[in-house]
Structure formats: C-alpha cells, structure tokens
Known about the structure:
Layout: E1 6-10, E2 15-20, H1 31-47, E3 53-58, E4 63-65, H2 78-96, E5 102-106, E6 109-111, H3 113-120, E7 123-127, E8 131-133, H4 147-155, H5 157-166, E9 170-171, H6 172-178, E10 183-185, H7 190-201, H8 206-216, H9 222-236, H10 239-250
Parallel strand pairs: 2-3, 3-5, 4-6, 5-7, 6-8, 7-10
Antiparallel strand pairs: 1-2, 8-9
Helix pairs in contact: 1-2, 3-4, 4-5, 8-9
Amino acid sequence: MELKDIILEQREDHILLVSINRPKALNALNRAVFDGLEYAFGEYRNAHPELIGIIVSGSGDKAFAAGADIKEFSSLNAEEATALSRRGQLIFQQIEDTDIPVIAAVEGFSLGGGCELAMACHLRIASEKAKFGQPEVNLGLIPGYGGTQRLKRLVGHAKALELLMTADMVGGAEARQLGLANHCVAPGETMNKSIEIIHKIATKGPIAVANCLKTAQIPFGQDGYLEEARLFGASIVSDEAKEGIDAFVSKRKAAFKRS
C-alpha cells in the first residue's frame, strides 16, 4: 500500500515505528493519516507476527498530533460527520485491540484527535514539554474519536468533565499525575523510554501479555471477572505457563517462545 502522511519503519528488534508525517500541519489528523493508521494496525500488523511492540509518534518535536484537520470539517453535513466520527472510533479501537503493546511517544502538542489517538494507545510516554487537551468545545464541537469515553477511564469522571468543558491543556508532568501519561521524561527521550518498556515487556509471556491487554479493556463488572477467570484457566495448562512456572521453580530465566 502506498502511504501518504504516515511513515512505517520496522526496527531490527521487531518494533514498528508509526510516525505521522505532517510537521508543517503539526501532524494534524486527516483522511490520509487515518488510512495509514488503519493499514498499520490491520494489514501490516497481521502480516508481521514477529512484532513485539508498536510506537506511535509525530514528526518533529512540536507536536505528536495537534488535532484533526479542521479544514476537512467545513463541508460536512450531519450524516457525513457521523460517518467520519465512527470511522475514527473504529480505527482507534483497532489500535486499542492490538495484541502487542502500543505506546504513544508524545512530544509537543497532543490535542483533540491527537489526544484521542494517544489515549487509544495502551501506554503514553510524555515529554516534559508535552501538552494534552480536548479543545473541541472552543469550536462548538465535542470529541468524536472516543475522547469522551477514554478520558474518563484514565483520569476519572469529574476531572474528565472539567477538561472536556473548559478545554484546558495539561503539561507532561500533570498528565503523569492525573494518570493520562505513564511517564514524563526529558524532551527528546520519549522514544528511548518507549523502546525500553517494550523490550521489558518482550521478556514476558507473549500470550499472557496479549490476554492482559484483552481483559483490561473490558468495562468494569462481572463480564471482566468471568473473562479473567476463563483466560487464567486456559493459561494454566499452556506451554507458556509450564515454561514460566518451571523456570520459577528451577530459579532460571524463562525462555518464552514468540510466533
């Protein structure tokens, strides 16, 4: 597939780098970016089972993604806008459903659709100069790519409402305190921290990691407990668990197999 506005680079350590490449537009999300994300987390991921993790970033140091491309909004009617929102939601859900860790390396602005993209990733590494926010109300709009739902999961209901209604931005350190970011690092270090975390996760059981990602996304309630119990039961008899348990008992390092 010929990609426009997205760069894919697979490192020798089997980490896929997905970079939004619209620096002059502060990496704003347009249709071509969504096409690239859909391909990266769909066809490309499925064709490369050797991948151990994916890092999403923005070109340059000014922005991860400074929002949606508002110029594409001006001619939309209600039906077209609804379809655009649903497509964004489905692609971001595709990212969240990925069975290997997906980390957003956030340098600079992560606003609107950019913040929604970062929240769709499993983890977020923020630069001290990062700025997160959902400023849609400034345009008389609301977030359309899952922001109203994921933000409250990460920072809590009341704080999410405050950020959604005031359009206030939070820096990297505050994002870390709120739970919006996992780590806050020096500018230029988000990629290195992301790679470090993926390498650490890659030493664990890959099926167990995938199951953690799957069960943690189920809304709180009985269904989540039931699925957790089912997958725990299935994993206890797996070759992966047998290796992990034997390594623990034998006081050696586990040698997990990857596909």
